[in-house]
Amino acid sequence: MKKKKKIALVAAFFVFSATALGLVAMVYAKYVSKIEKTGTATVAKWAFTTDNLAGSVACELDETYDATTLVADRIAPGTSGKCPILVSNANSEVGIRYDIKPSTVANQPKNLKFYKEAAHTNEITGATTINGTLAPGAAATTVYVYWQWPYQDGTEEYDADDTTDGENANTMTMTFDVVGTQIQPVAQ
């Protein structure tokens, strides 16, 4: 009888253990579903342009100089003008910052200077540029690089440099760098 009790006790222990494990497994059971969603994002178009990409910039004299003092289409001390550069963001979907500066100038008269504005007070030198921003889809706008060759400052060196440039009568050519850079989008 002792043996039957032992077997019954072991059997009861296994039944109890199996029941307890089943209950524990039920406590940790859960529903799991996986749903996949696909999203899309379209890259914004970049199309910053300038009208001067394939050609030259026609620099203009601000005034019509009297033919008795200056031959047409020539520069000399006392003249000034501007070089128009058209920048456009009409086909872009991002805002841009543009920077413009003369990159190479051949045969520049020594005293001729480039400026950011018509008042000739903010000279473009070295890393100085004319800059601004255009919103996405902004229509073309004309930006000017102004120049001036001042007439007489009262020093002999100034006059000697102007005289040498006049004797050489070279044709000045200018190349402008026009760089458009995307403006980082701001979160709303």
Reported by name, the CATH topology is Immunoglobulin-like
Residue-averaged pLDDT: 79
The CATH architecture assignment turns out to be: Sandwich
Overall tally of structural domains: 1
How many angstroms does the end-to-end distance come to? 84 Å
Q: Strand portion, in percent? A: 25-35%
The helix content is 10-25%
Let me know the largest β-sheet: 5 strands, antiparallel
Identify the notable features of this structure and list them briefly.
three-stranded antiparallel β-sheet, 2 helices, alpha+beta, five-stranded antiparallel β-sheet, Immunoglobulin-like
Describe this structure in words.
The chain is an alpha+beta fold and 188 residues long. The protein has a single domain (49-182), classed as Immunoglobulin-like. 21% of the residues lie in helices and 28% in strands. The protein is built from two helices and eight strands. It has helices at 2-27, 156-168; strands at 49-50, 60-61, 79-88, 96-106, 113-115, 130-134, 141-149, 173-182. Strands 1, 2, 3, 5 and 7 form a five-stranded antiparallel beta sheet that branches. It is rod-shaped, with a radius of gyration of 39 Å. It starts with a helix and ends in a 6-residue tail after the last strand. The model has no long low-confidence stretch (mean pLDDT 79).
Describe this structure in a few short sentences.
This protein has 188 residues and is α+β, with helices and mostly antiparallel strands. It is built from 2 helices and 8 strands.
